[in-house]
Amino acid sequence: QKEVEQDPGPLSVPEGAIVSLNCTYSNSAFQYFMWYRQYSRKGPELLMYTYSSGNKEDGRFTAQVDKSSKYISLFIRDSQPSDSATYLCPERLGSQGNLIFGKGTKLSVKP
Amino acid sequence: DGGITQSPKYLFRKEGQNVTLSCEQNLNHDAMYWYRQDPGQGLRLIYYSQIVNDFQKGDIAEGYSVSREKKESFPLTVTSAQKNPTAFYLCASSIGGKFTNEKLFFGSGTQLSVL
Q1: Is A49 close to B108, i.e. CB distance below 8 A?
Q2: Taking CB atoms and an 8 Å cutoff, what residues of chain B touch A99?
Q3: Are the Cβ atoms of B44 and A1 closer than 8 angstroms?
Q4: Which pairing describes strands B10-13 and B110-114: parallel, antiparallel, or unpaired?
């Protein structure tokens, strides 16, 4: 099963840092993009959802999509210890079109 | 509050035993999914159901079975044929309709371990 390509991590940053998380997707027909955040031993929660190229901002979080290069990024400004989690960017692949999740990028924000 | 409820949070299985994981949603979603997550690994799709009384195998269905008798419920049975069942199991739901811009909503997971 092909997996989504994400920065492998783990990533450790000091509190207040700007964080950049990146994914490369392969399905050129993929039209909408999501970022999920998963805390340890919890279910993933939808963090960002965008249906276009360009940037979408929500508080300290910005999702950026570059369809020409099939690249998506999540930027976290003024990172907080509560942002410490694994971040997932699924892609829709395969004949059934179900969402495929990679290993994610584990982020640790140190106080 | 609407959401997805998984139970139990922790489950232990003995050799040769079948165990059933519960998943209930009150979001009025048509589609439901079961994923398996191993430490340091991505989520792998076990089974999914787009509508009541219908379900399809995902990528790793061997050793698992499901039923979808009600829209709200999608229980997963881990059978004795699953030789490596220890994992974190996640149930999810979405509004439904394949190839749409659907968002997945997840439950809080069940950790299954072998005694």
Answers
A1: no
A2: 104
A3: yes
A4: parallel
